[in-house]
Amino acid sequence: MELVYETRWSRHYKDDDLQLRVCESKFADGTASITVEELAQAWSTWERKDQIDFCQSVIQAKFAHLPDVLRFIMKHGDWETWSSIATSVGRNLPQQEALPFIEEACRVCPVGKGELLFQALAFHRSREVIPTLRECLKRTWSDSRLMSDEAVYDWAAHDATALIEYLSQFGEKTPDLREKYQVLVNHPLATNRQNALHRLSPYFK
User: Fold this and answer.
1) 92 exposed, middle or buried (CB, 10 Å; 0-12, 13-18, 19+)?
2) In this structure, are 7 and 91 located in the same domain?
3) pLDDT band at 107 (very low <50, low <70, confident <90, very high)
4) What is the domain range of residue 65?
5) What is the full DSSP assignment across 104-140?
6) What is the pLDDT of residue 76?
7) pLDDT per residue over 17-76, tens digit each?
8) For an engineered disulfide with 28, which of 60, 88, 94, 135 has Cβ 3.0 to 4.6 Å away?
9) Domain count of the chain?
10) Which residues contact 173 (CB under 8 A, 6 or more apart)?
11) 3 lies in a domain?
12) From CA 144, how far away is CA 150, in angstroms rounded?
């Protein structure tokens, strides 16, 4: 694959024949590293794109202080940077610390931007996350942009589909979820219909 560009934290490749784009973290092979102290000094000076690039890359770091790096981002980041680290937070921090953080991040994330946070929440495989998933679904379902045909893709419907999928993985089979499934598979946009059918039809046959 051809190297297109690289940053301090990542390398970006493409293969035009396969129409493939790949991002490789420099933390994964040890060519990037950072201490918590260095991060604290630099974070506020970075541009937004650099903060996100760092968060997307550092989750593959193998150094022992990764939990403390994650804690720094948890304290000083926002929903967008949190989305990049949420699954890593669930894997590297104690559940009693990670779960409340991810639940709150899900609540404050804008509708249509929550997939990675919902995924991290469901990763815990604990039924105690069901009320938060339900709460997020209720908020998403009431969003005025849901079922819109004014864009190429309806990201509110995407979030709703993801939330129903994760609830279904916990065995939730309530009539309201089936009703929402029927609405989503009849979405005015073909891309959203296909997404809902692919992800949800195994649970609602």
Assistant:
1) middle
2) yes
3) very high
4) 1-98
5) HHHHHSPTTS-HHHHHHHHHT--GGGHHHHHHHHHHH
6) 97
7) 777 889 999 999 999 999 999 999 999 999 999 999 999 999 999 999 999 999 999 999
8) 60
9) 2
10) 203
11) yes
12) 12
